[in-house]
Every structure is written in structure tokens, then in C-alpha cells.
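As promised in the previous annual report, we have extended the structural survey to additional targets. Below is the entry for Hydrolase.
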Amino acid sequence: MAYKLKPVDIIRHNSPEMAPVPTGVKPKIKPLKNIRAVLFDIYGTLFQSGVGDISLVANEKSKEREVLIRKSMEEVGFLLQDQKTPINELFMDTIKAEQDIRRDQGTPFPEVDIIGVWEDLIGQLEAYELLRGRTTRNNLMQLATLFEVRVNPVYPMPGVLDVFESCLDKGKSLGLISNAQAFTPLLFDAFFEDGPHDLGVEEVLCVYSYDHHFAKPGIELYQVAMDRLQALDGIKPEETLIIGNDMRNDIWPAQKLGFKTALFAGDKRSLRLREDDPDCKDVKPDVIVTELEQIPECLTK
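The corresponding C-alpha cell record, generated without further manual editing, is:
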């Protein structure tokens, strides 16, 4: 029997309500002049996250993940014929193998398309007659979404819709720049019943790592954003505010290209100050916010 839940419903059914954990960081708010566009990170900034980021960064091979990956595969319709094969370890190794290929090709921070990873993994298991089930794009998407929300439950940060509305009222173009997968934009549909574009985000300013095979903290995603901002309306990096929760992934690379930056320090689970990272030693965000609603205070019309 085919698994009936759509990816959006999978997210809804597996996302318990969460509240941000205070960080103790004091906000540093000041007016930033001439900002024309605001680009948000997703995991840990717009959405609370169990691991503080998309789950791929965790690189875990725990017993709990092994149970969850088997349960997810079987619910979607892939019947495992062996209880000893370490499926989660094979999954993580498949991710690493693809990343290594891209590193060898010159990409320092490669990203995978997780749907392709699942397809490769299932192909390996089928080749050794360890799995039965029919592979389709639909059930691969279901599987990828189901496993992700089980190992990394998410819930909106307070004030997402309000900050979008306030930025739009001030005439700012909105965008997203994030380590992300195909299921990531569906978070907006799942919790707000509208996709990013319907909420006012410019489609051309949605820059997702899986689309380009580049991940943060590499500067490549920011270069894509820079080119698209210029093409959209001649918007320059110094006229763009990048908002994220990670000093190395969000603030450091954005500043290297001349973007204005805001560190979101609103949730202890996701705040990454990187105080011991030499790359971040002298990096300071232009502003620090502890609530999304503080962002419009930094923007002038």
C-alpha cells in the first residue's frame, strides 16, 4: 500500500510545538541605512530546529538514528530484508562519498541533493537483495521528509510572518539563503499554509544549497545571491542585510562579499558564536537581534 501522507502533511504530523531557548545574549540594534533587500537563513533563524541546523550537519551514526531510518523506510514502503546491515551508516557514507567527489572537483564545501542520496542508497540495498519496494520520485521525497523531521523536528520562530510583513511594508525585497533540501521550502506551507513566494519572498532570491551543490560556509551561495540581487533591481551587497544564527556559516562569508549582517541570537539550540574558530576571530555582525521582530528596527524606509 502506498504511503498516503504528502510531504507537507508529514512535516505537520511530526512537528511538536517548541519554544526558543534564551541565549543570554544582549541585542545590539542600530539603524542600517540604504538597505533594500533582506535575506534570511532558514534553519535556526526562521525555524527552530532540534539540531540547530538541517540534520545533514549532525553526521551522526547513533542507534536512535538507525531505528528511525528503518522505521521511516518501512512506513514509506521499502521492506528491509536484513536487520543487521547498518542502514544509517550506509546513508551517511553515501553522503560523504558524494561530498568527497565534489571536493576532489574543487568545491571546498559541497552540498548533496538528498533525494539523489536516498535513490543511491536504495539502489545499493536492492543490488544486494536487502530491500524490496518500488522507487518513485514521490516516495523518495516522502522518505527524505519523514526521516528529516524525525531526526530534526522543526517549528517556526516567533514572529516570522510579522517580520516579513514589516520588511515588506518598509519596501524591502525578501529572500532566503540557506543550507537546504527540496523539502525545506515546504516548511512554510506546512506551518503558514502558504509557500515563500505567497508570503512575499522573491522567488529569484531563494538560494538553496541543494540547487547549486554548494553549502555554507562557502561563499558560492552568497555569490549567487549577489548576482541575482544585481539582476533583480541593481541591488548591491552593501544594500542587503543577511540574517543568520551562525557566525561562520552566515556572518563570515556574507561579510567577505560586502553584505551587511545580522546575527540572530534568539535560540540557544541554534546559536553558533564560533568563538574558537580562527576564521571568526575578528568577525563582528553589524547588528545582533534576539527576536525576529527587532529586525525592522534596524531598517529605515
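The radius of gyration is 20 Å. The domain at 7-53+154-298 is CATH 3.40.50.1000 (Rossmann fold). These points will be discussed at the next consortium meeting with the crystallography subgroup.
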